[in-house]
Amino acid sequence: MKFGFFDDVNKEYVINSPKTPYPWINYLGNQGFFSLISNTAGGYCFYKDARLRRITRYRYNNVPIDMGGRYFYINDNGTIWNPGWSPVKTELDEYECRHGMGYTIIKGKKNGLKAEVTFFVPQNYDGEVQQVVLTNDSSEAKSFSIFSLAEWCLWDAQDDCTNFQRNFSTGRVEIEGSTIYHVTEYRDRRNHYAFYTVNDTIDGYDTDRDSFFGSIYNGWADPQTVIADKPSNSFADGWSPIASHYKKVTLAPGESKTLIYILGYAENPQDKKFASEKPEGLLTRETWVLNKEKAYAMIEKYNTPEKVAAGLEELRNTWNSLLSILNVSTPDDKVDRMVNIWNQYQCMVTFNLSRSASYFESGIGRGMGFRDSNQDILGFVHQIPERARERLIDIASTQLSDGGCYHQYQPLTKKGNADIGGDFSDDPLWMILSVASYIKETGDWGILDADVPFDDDPNGKHKMLEHLDVSFYHIVNNLGPHGLPLAMRADWNDCINLSCFSDTPGESFQTYTNPKFAAEGGYSKVAESAFVATLFTYTGPAYVGILKHLGKDDEAAKAQAEIDKMKKNVMESAFDGDWFIRAYDANGEKMGSKECEEGKIFIEPQGFAVMSEIGKDQGADIKTLNSIDKYLNCEFGLVLNNPAFTKYYIQYGEISTYPGGYKENAGIFTHNNAWIICAEAYAGRGDKAFEYYSKIAPAFTEETSDIHKTEPYVYGQMIGGKDAKNFGQGKNSWLTGTAAWNMVAISQYILGVQPDFDGLRVDPSIPHEWDGFKATRKFRGATYNITIKNPDHVCKGVKSMTLDGKAIEGCIVPVCEGGVHEVEVVLG
Ligand code: BGC
Ligand code: NOJ
Fold first, then answer.
1. What pTM was computed for the model?
2. Which of 494, 507, 658 to mutate to test the pocket of ligand 1 (most atoms within 8 A of CB)?
3. How many angstroms separate the CA atoms of 391 and 368, rounded?
4. What number does the ligand 2 atom closest to the CA of 493 have?
């Protein structure tokens, strides 16, 4: 069952029922000011940091769900409704929500009155613009009123939802004309404020929540002021400050009126915090007055429909240009809309927000993840390489000089997070991968020479290349008894914690130190990760390639020898006959092996082992891929492990705390489905690669939205696996490494357009029935129009290739100096 449709021309998903199976959201803003907005206008906004600069309030885990947002209430002669249906939930005559690239348009119609609200955050602007167009579609004149509503959060979102003994007394506002200013704590230690304004006179207002709702027993769905059509002109004094404008409107038949609301944020320098005079008409309870110069300028910027149209146009142009870098035309519309629009869009969002704020991540939990942010670069780097470069340097600066890493860092301070600490065994390797992908995209070898300090040597002179060296050798220097990397606190799978045996509720599986291993540095020197071994053999060649390019042949040979040794160790100690085992636990027992009672096979090591060609001469790659198909493949994707754990295995850590079929215990983790898609494509099995791709790619889940529940335009982290009661149900949408990795899987492995150090590799691995496809790729200043022909209906194999009509050897298009170039590839 569907709840909307894709409008590819406008790059929008159009939702035509407000009652989606879960709130389907969009993100506005891509620089400093961000908003989350659901299809019923729920959600919130923040400036840069979802925890420390939360502007509007949101209650996660609320009943009913998604109560709280920026709402417009219309009272049309006693009929009260919202353009987005919620929170009053009056049945609408028409409803539509269009989630587009950085904007959302919500339209509602009731009794001949139409309200169309466009929400967006303009480029280089710290505010959300909400343009409301009211149209009288009836044949009679209409007089009605419109109330706006936003509830302020008291800045620190964590404190806001816990420290009530203080917060119920601190809320402050100022009101000037049609603008309501939120100034809680401004007098004392803050220099930022927020405001909510409308570009017209108002007929009343409210700034105190309980006054607006009319009683403490009323809420979003039944505000008494709206029902009575009478604002209370309240002035917040502690409790919960809000901002609500009241406006009476009369429209002749066919007439429209546009109102522009702006929800903005501004910061003042310390010495310019206060205005010297109190302007006439300003409502305040204070003896001081906020300096509002910045707000005035912001309001001026978007106070007419023409200015709003120009802002929207600029946003559209920005996105059109970002999406013009890679564009494909394949025999499958769903692939095109994923590659050309939604997957790239999601990659931008994950790059910006890491795992901080979604409808499943509260914005008060994690900082930026070391491994997460590095992987996010893989899907984003072609869009704005300069921002990727900056991010790489920020991340690398949190690394320690021995190659270890803080697992997370805070975006505001850019400092490693000591509470979480380090010793996650996979972290350093992702950095080699992300830096290599940046160089492959841009050809900017100069990044290796950039000064990048270590966290434990902030003033030392260190180069980016040194970070790659220590990353690589951090693995080599921390091997266990079988010569495989130590598993430490966790690897990519946060829930395989082979050292943190915990039988006490509340102990963190990742940071708790088992006394047994305290003397050894906090983790077992026996437990080894076969996954990290294969990630090492997959990533290592990029490091070797970098060294060779720099002419460091001896170092390259030394690194290559380590990779070869690791492959040998994996084949000797971690190949189980038909697949690769997952790990050795702290007792030296195999995990993810035929010998195990449950969890006999895991997905993680398999893809990278295949792509590293470990045991290929003995057929290990095909045996492994076939085992995945046999044990992990199911209707909605590939489960993480099989059989699911039904008991608690203390020696494995968090993984078996989940019921079977969910999350890391045999859920369909879409992130590492991509590694198998890549591996199938690598092995030349384009049909299988595409089968797996299309099981999880959002556009393909659209038809089963009632089962899948989350947005059909973006990936979620997890889908309930075959052992789950809710088989096929998506969770944790938006902020997941799945976005980047599936972008890599489809564009670089299946469609096979893959940036490399010396040019653009074109080596597709597609469904055999495709006749071919076309791709346009801007790469290092030139544009390549690529045509793939598949006359023999093979999956993989470049038979011939021409660049501007001239044959080229192999399948790497050399870097051209600017211009537009035609590349023709014949498979066979
Ligand atoms: C989740 C993981 C997540 C981790 C973060 C675990 O409970 O299952 O997916 O990465 O928490 O700390
Ligand atoms: C989500 C985390 O953000 C990511 O870092 C981790 O790899 C996966 N969960 C798997 O545990």
1. 0.97
2. 494
3. 11
4. 11
